[in-house]
């Protein structure tokens, strides 16, 4: 056991560079997003192969509503279409699909598709794919703090009972372990409002490739980098 490489239990991914990938090829930005779906498939295959149990994809941030309407619509369409299309394969592979973020802002149709896929994949045991949709960390924290304040107001908890566990339990990610490894493609080195609380002790990896060029080999490279890191969690070895 001693020589086995550490494998992250949870990998969280900021899929960046779809637009640049498309532009470099003289294509529409939405074509970059379409190509990016194949990278999600490849990542899931590689994650399963190596025993990673949770993969979170930052698919749509609360800030993404500010993009041109045509791009937002194309992304919604793509997400719905992919989610429906991939369901049988995800079930076959034992992938459970979950989401984080505030889904209430999506259309009824999108919300129904998401609820359906969550329900149909609920028995998946090999890997949990978490889609961050209309998600941003500050928005998640804001919602959680309001819930906590309400619980205090109702007398359900005392202010001095608010500890880290209680805060974690209020977040959208309450049911999942914190990410061990955060990957952001296309060379940008920012968190962009993604899992701020949860990434407190995560390792970070920033490959240069744009998301549509991220594949199984790239994921394995990320695992190699992770295995070489020395995680101390603020302690001394
Ligand atoms: C960032 O690239 C990417 C996104 C905002 C969207 C990612 C979404 C997908 C790959 C499709 C998701 C599908 C499912 C089923 C969840 P960018 O557009 O910011 O690229 P740029 O920085 O080069 O402009």
SSE-based structural type: alpha/beta
What is the helix/strand order? EHHEHEHEHHEEH
Largest sheet: 6 strands, parallel
Shape: globular
- Widest β-sheet, arrangement of strands: 3-4-2-1-5-6
Q: Percent range for helical residues?
A: 40-55%
CATH architect. name: 3-Layer(aba) Sandwich
Q: How would you describe the overall organization of this protein?
A:
With 237 residues, the protein is an alpha/beta fold. It has one domain (10-136, 178-227): Decaprenyl diphosphate synthase-like (Undecaprenyl pyrophosphate synthetase, 3-Layer(aba) Sandwich). It is built from seven helices and six strands. It has helices spanning 18-24, 29-50, 69-93, 108-120, 137-153, 164-170, 216-227; strands at 10-14, 54-61, 95-100, 127-135, 181-184, 203-205. It has a six-stranded parallel sheet with strand order 3-4-2-1-5-6, with helices on both faces. β3 (95-100), α4 (108-120) and β4 (127-135) form a beta-alpha-beta unit. α2 crosses α7. The longest helix is centred in the middle third of the chain and has 25 residues, at 69-93. The chain starts with 9 loop residues before the first strand and ends in a 10-residue tail after the last helix.
Topology record:
Elements: E1 10-14, H1 18-24, H2 29-50, E2 54-61, H3 69-93, E3 95-100, H4 108-120, E4 127-135, H5 137-153, H6 164-170, E5 181-184, E6 203-205, H7 216-227
Parallel strand pairs: 1-2, 1-5, 2-4, 3-4, 5-6
Residues 15-20, 33, 36-37, 57, 59, 64, 78-79, 82-83, 131 line the site of farnesyl diphosphate.
